[in-house]
Amino acid sequence: MNVKALILWLLLAAPLWAQGFAGLGGGAEGFATPSPGTVLEFPADHGPHPDFRIEWWYLTANLRGADGRDYGVQWTLFRTALAPGEAEGWQSPQLWMGHAALTTPERHFVAERLARGGVGQAGAQAAPFEVWVDEWRMAGPDVSEIALTANGADFGYDLNLSADGPLIPQGAGGYSVKSAGGQASHYYSQPFYRVAGTLHLPEGSVSVSGQGWLDREWSSQPLEATQEGWDWISLHLDEGAKLMGFQLRQSDGTTYTSGTWIGADGRAEPFGDGALRMTPVERAAVAGRDLPVGWRVELPGRGLDVTLRALNPESWMDTLFPYWEGPVRVGGSHPGRGYLEMTGY
Amino acid sequence: MLLEARDIEKSYGTGAGAVRVLSGVSFRAAAGESVALTGESGSGKSTLLHLCAGLDRPDAGEIRIDGQALGALDDRGRAALRRDRIGLVFQQFNLIPSLPVAANLSFQARLAGRQDAAWCAALAERLGLEGLLRRYPEQLSGGQQQRVAIGRALAARPRLILADEPTGNLDEATGDAVLALMLELVSETGAGLVMVTHSARLAARLDRRLHLSGGRIA
Amino acid sequence: MRRATLSAMLSHWLRHPLQLGSLLLGLALATALWSGVQAINAEARASYARAAQMLGQDRFAQLVPRDGQRFDQSVFVALRRAGWQVSPVLEGALQTDGQQLRVLGLDPLSAPAGSAPQTVTGRGDLPGFLTPPGQGYAAPQTVRALAGQPGLPRLIASDDVLPGLLITDIGIAQGLLEASGQVSRLILAPEQPRRRAPLAAIAPGLTQRPPQARADIAALTDSFHLNLTAFGLLSFAVGLFIVHGAIGLAFEQRRPMFRTLRALGVPLRSLIGLLMAEVLILALIAGLAGVALGYGIAAALLPDVAATLRGLYGAALPGTLSLRPAWWAGGLGIAVIGAGAAAGQSLWRLAHLPPLAPAQPRAWARASARGLWRQGAAALGLGLAAFGLAVFGSGLVAGFALLGALLLAAALALPGILALGLGVAERAAKGVLAQWFWADTRQQLPGLSLALMALLLALAANIGVGTMVSSFRLTFLGWLDQRLVAELYVTARDEEEAARLRQWLAPRVEAVLPVWSIEAPVAGAPAQIYGVADHATYRDHWPLLDALPGVWDRLAAGEAVLINEQMARRAGLGPGDALTLPGANGALIVAGVYSDYGNPHGEALLGQGLFTTLYPQAPRLRHALRLPPEEAPALARALVREFGLPAGNIRDQAAIKAVSVQVFDRTFTVTAALNVLTLGVAGLAMLTSLLTLAGMRLPQLAPVWALGLTRAHLARLELLRALMLAALTMVLAVPVGLLLAWALLAVVNVAAFGWRLPMFTFPADWLRLGALALLAGGLAALWPALRLARMAPADLLKVFAHER
Q1: Counting CB atoms within 10 angstroms of each CB, which of C18, C169, C223, C501 has the fewest?
Q2: What ipTM describes this predicted complex?
């Protein structure tokens, strides 16, 4: 069975990814839409929002091993709904897709899982906090204290994460605008994880520690039809501050940018369109495509002018719907490390 | 009378395309008599001979052999008549290719149930065929083949020999020799002979000559 | 000039419409038989491919319930959450209005690629597939049959789905089958994560079944196809002989004309070019007709084939035929190649004919001793080659080469052998007519030899394939008799039930024999190991091919093992050899080898005591029951009543045998139909040969007629001649057919399937076939004979006419 074609169709039909989707800029067929006045409520909002079309739990971690080498880890669970709401058993309209990756300077391991809601194979709940597909789990008593595990055919990891900072609402109190036309999502992050655990590689296990970043986002139509893809970054700066930023590339060549400066004390300062500048400085041929794997990122309002270099330019997510996602090293005015995601290339 | 033909008519084909070959032919041949039938090509000589042999039926008229009317005989009866009383010699010899000379020579006699080994041997000797008995027809010359055919016709001691241009496929010298041999043997057995020929020279060597023209005896 | 030449050449056909007809008919029939058999084979294979795709999950390892019952889908979720990449499948029968529908429910998200037909879900309306009422993919005829039935998902026609099957989402299937939350089995994806919990800890009720690249029964269906393919080969050979004869005759008869045309200044090159064009056109016309005819044959026979395969495979095959472009191309190609091969010799001769060579009207028909010797030498050479292949060759290609060499040798040897026999008869003949009869027959032989060769091949193929199929049937049924001695076979759902079952059965039957097995590698290949009780059931019936003395005592004592023929051949083991089983401390003695037809895998038999010692973990669920056969049905009913066992867990020996017999008898129907057809074609070859010979033979018959035989007498002799030739050919066909059967059973079958079938002969069948051969020969000779009997004297007299 051609599951790939199926899922491709499905994902094209669902406006999660910007690439090539068309004709869905209109009504959301009964789905809830994000509204600016919504106040995030915890722990309820850690759980799923089945009335919204799409949602994700997106965790990245920059790690250093006992062997002195740098590593990156990604753990993502996407939820997509065929129809709003939830139902029992196979009749559930909720579909789940998990992505796990482990990046070393030389290699990039990827695994993917698909599941239907309703029968227990995959799901999410707010309290006690648990998000899972198959044996992959992100769970803890609470979001601030979680265990993370995932496996592929030739890799796996078991990590413990604990947050030493607050949750950060993105945009205006968690209402993140994605276009000049007003498309938006609900979006908050936990960028303050300390991470420790074990990576399982073909050549053996290695203990690691480092920093982690969780993004939570849900929406029903986050992008404009004219938006072709995005470049998204999450940076842990050595001085203790964090930076989240993204630019949405539009078909006329212009971009829509947004960013949040998060101080070491947990205070967040959002920046609207145009404040953040992202410029490719190095390109590489990856998976038969031409991708910018080095970026210059400027945020004049904070005196930031840094260069991002991929730890491993081959951090290609060869999943049903492929994209680039991997750890980066940050140099320049504010050294540090972080994660870069690029879609639509 | 050995052979008696009266008012014989014969056409080939039907309707507008019908060709009238014989229109009221009558003649007789007695035992021991030799008769030459001459005429132009297509004058009906061969047809008349075939009718006399009972190979085909006339449209009208009657043929009697030894007083036996052929018209009264069915297929089987006419076959028996040919077997028992008639010897046929053809221009193209018409030996049986699958049988050796000896078997060809004795074929009709054995068919008629009258094989006479001494007579066959004598015939073979008279016809100069002693050294050729084991050969097959295709291994013989034309003159040799016709001598076998004459031997075959005589082996059953028929009452009547019907010969259709027996020398027509032979050169003149060979033809003359073969004809001489045939006439000699026929007269020895006392049989009657009717021979179709277009050659006046050959016809002159027979007792009597009948000329066919326009479907009638001239 | 070309036009004038062409019209001269074509005028021949106008004057000999019968010859033209026989040429076209011969080519068309050869093509028809070939393409018909190919069509049946191709259609069956295409359906197999579909069946394999439909049953595609067999290509994956699976987790199946030990008790054969459906289980809760929470087991599926538990396995997924323990790291097992499995996908649920729910299967079941749904009684709809008028027909039984097999429902297959899948989960498209977790199913591994390749586990369901391509078109089913490749079309992509996933939400529609998953969301009630869902979508059901089914064969077009099934969709038609189900139209308007309430309660079904939206039906979508798909050519990739077998008739009688409905593929739908597992959630929809659970609703249709009223099996909410239930699953039949789990497909195991080929790629699994590196860490998984042990299966026994998560799902103790499931057991892993390895991928079944080929179902056991597939070996039988392959054999069936091989049978058909051999038939295609033979029928084509028969057809080729007809074409060769017809074309050769047409060339030979026109030789004087070719001579005249060349004398009049037509260049050889353009003459040959025109003749090649003529052959090509004739071949294309006949080829088209032949393919259409072959399609008809296939369409007529296919329902039987479908039924056979349904019986063999348990999966429905569409009973209709789709016309594939490949057949047209293949059929036309075969016709052109066949005609070309047949015309090649004639063209070659024409090219080497001096312009003024004497016309030899009888050259074609005249026996050439040298030609016979050459054919005989070629036959001898091919016979030696066949012998060499039989002794030294190995593999399927060598097997088919052996078949080809054997057939060609027999065909080429036929005229020589017949000529010898006729010569002897001629010398022995007393009467003048008898002598002439034999001599004349011998002379006719070259003209008839091609038709007789075709008849020989048809008869030999008949005997050979018939012997093979019958031997196969007898052997297989005998094997069934031996292996399925017990009257009932019953499988418990779990160990506890098995124990209760044994207790309950003990007073009710003569014996309860455990049939416990485990799968384990033996001698480096996967094999099934069985533990059997020491009982007369085995001692008296087990089909041992070779054994040490006291084999059953040794087995019961736990010191020996029995293996099947497949394992013996594969591992090169025989009685007396040592074999170490997995888990055993020391080696056991191979005490015997038994036949095990139709099973591609290795098998080993142990005494029950040793088996339970070595493999205590093996499930102890299956039992063979001995009881008076007439009590079996009542006991089967009682088992269902007392234990609620599903019908599939109780196997009635009589039922299994009945199904097997049915399957083979259907196979017979197809082969018998093809047999009759091939024979009919051979009869037609004789008819056309006799008809064309009839005209040429007049100069040989007319003198005999003139010398005192009636036409009716001659006609009777002609008929007798054909019957005699057919009878002689039949006599010669028997040894050829037996050799053919031997090659099929002992060489081709071994090469293809790894086991040899014993050969059984069926003389009664030969008598029937002999009668058929006489009928074919007689019918073929009847028309020419009647024509001779009724021929106008004037036509015979033409032979004597001066102007000839």
Answers
A1: C18
A2: 0.91
